[in-house]
Amino acid sequence: MAGVARTIATNTEVDLTAALEFARTRHRMLLITYRGDGSAQASPVTGGVDADGRIVISTYPERAKTRNARRRAEVSVVVVSDEWNGPWLQIDGRCEVIDLPEAAEALVDYYRAIAGEHPDWDE
Fold first, then answer.
1. Which structural domain range is residue 86 located in?
2. How many domains does the structure of the chain reveal?
3. Is 122 a domain residue?
4. CATH code assigned at 27
5. Residue 78 class from Cβ within 10 Å (0-12 exposed, 13-18 middle, 19+ buried)?
6. Does residue 87 have a cis bond before it (omega within 30 degrees)?
7. 53-98 confidence digits (pLDDT tens)
C-alpha cells in the first residue's frame, strides 16, 4: 500500500519494577488459566498491584478461573491500557487462591490497589 506508513508491533522486555509500575495505573486485565484438558481460558478481570507488589484479582470460588487456578497455579495476566491500541504487558507466574475468611485482609489490599482508601472500612 503506497503512501501508508507501516507500523510493526514490537516486544520490549522490562524488569519487575517497571512491569509493576505499568500495572499499578491500569486495572483492566485478562487472566489466563488452564482447563483440565490443558487448553487456555482467558477471563476479563479487574485487578491491581498490592503493597507487596503482587497482582491481585478478586473473583468467586465457583468460577471456572478459580477452579482452574486451584488445579494449576501457573497463570498469565495481560494488563491492557484503557485505549485498545495502547501499550500492554504480560506477566507469567504462579498464583495463590485465598478463600474467605482468610482473604478479608487481601480484599482490603485489592480495594486499595484499585480505588484507594475506603471512607468507612467498618461499613
1. 16-115
2. 1
3. no
4. 2.30.110.10
5. middle
6. no
7. 999 998 999 999 999 999 999 999 999 998 888 999 999 999 999 8
